[in-house]
Amino acid sequence: MSTAKKTVKAAGIIMIITLLSKVFGFLRDMTLAFQFGTSVSMDVYNMATVIPMILFAAVTAAIATTVVPIFTEYFQKDGKRKAFDFINNLLGIVLLATIILTILGFLFAPYLVKFVAPAFTGEKFELTVKLTTILLPTMVFIAASNIFTGALQSMEHFTIPAMIGIPYNIIVITVAILYGNKFGITAVAYSIIIATFLQALMQLPVLYKLGYRFRVKVDFKDEGVKRVVLLAMPVLMGTGIQTINVYVDRVIASFLPDGSIAALNYANRLNMFALGIFSTAIATVIYPVLSKHSVTDDTEGFLKSLNFAVSSILYILIPVSVGAMVLRMPIIKVLFERGAFDENSTYLTSIALFYYAIGMTAYGLRDVLSRSFYSMKDTKTPMINGAMAVLLNIALNLILVRYLKLGGLALSTSLAAIFAIFLLFTSLKRKVGKIDGKYMFMSFIRAMLASIVMGVLVHFMYNNFIVKMPSDKRIYEAIALFITILAGAIIYSVIVLVIDRSAFSYFKKGIRFVNSKFVKN
How many whole angstroms separate alpha carbon 377 and alpha carbon 235? Predict the structure, then answer.
């Protein structure tokens, strides 16, 4: 088989794996929507997931972010054994810390729920406390999983980390279907414990094949751990600030009519679906590459890789965000409107999705730009810029929620993300000098023009299809939506290839790039 054929086949396999993982995640959301809709149970469940986030998300995100550049440096300069020794020590310390925080969470769960959901009372409050205590241990497994993922990605093995969401979602879906009616949302919470444990466990065989051997080690004086702590502190603060932002969103939403929190969550899931397939994949692959360029002081290679990542995100996410805004109602109706998820649920979710989609591209760019700083072992700049964006988000929340209700919360998040990327671009230019901003801007203009044309055509196309379809079955709506999306993708691709000849070469480079990073021949 020729190299070109191998490249296309390998890249296709990886894209299928990534897409499958996200599809199963979507099936999970569809299952939960069918079983619980935008009910009080879903409000409680979504609020209960915030508690572990407040306690652990900042820690686990900080660790996951800092593992890659430090592991890469050890691996490049001191060899595999030193790098794995660092992983064992970090794992021991993080597990000890998360277990202690879990115990404290058990003891103070009622107070934490009161803090996060001050408007919850009676049975709603009690159920939130119960779900919180069930979900707390999951963060121990998530912490371990993040460390294993960081090690694998540092060695440019991305396949298994990309796959761990599939069994996770299958477990949650199975439990929700089999036990959701009998035991309610509590059964789903228990399933997440099993699912997160499996996520950590399934990465170990690959690590062992690469030479890793687990051994208990807790050395707080280790130089690598000290460096993680120093790098992680700004990330910890930044993630903590983001968590506060989520907390403020949920608190304000808790004063809105029942179902508002669930609607925000469903809309956010839809928004993150595209991000998970495209921008998160690009950011994940580019991170260790940028770290290597940084270790070897290869500024030219660093900027070329960054430019490729930014341009790719612009060309992919702008049309997706426009499509999500134009087709938000049929998308939500086809995916979620069944069982307990009724027309009102569709309406509420569509409002939130429209405003979340405005910031979709900014989310993708923020992820890549933040990792470019992390790869240079600069975790302070993204933290400061992120803090400024969060302050703007909170201020906009308080203003816009009065006029747009839950739509105001989503719009505030999008505007803050757009503000954040302007800050990050400015900071990056100061740090590394010329970043070819003109080319990035022209990529943005071309992608935006093509997306607007596509959006207008897609709007009329779907409306024309749907009036000709029988209205008695949902399958016809799904067919009309699928044909419209496919046609929209073709229209956008043709326009982009006409106005930017370099786009086709980027596509070919992208296949080779993903293949070289995901697949080891």
Answer: 11
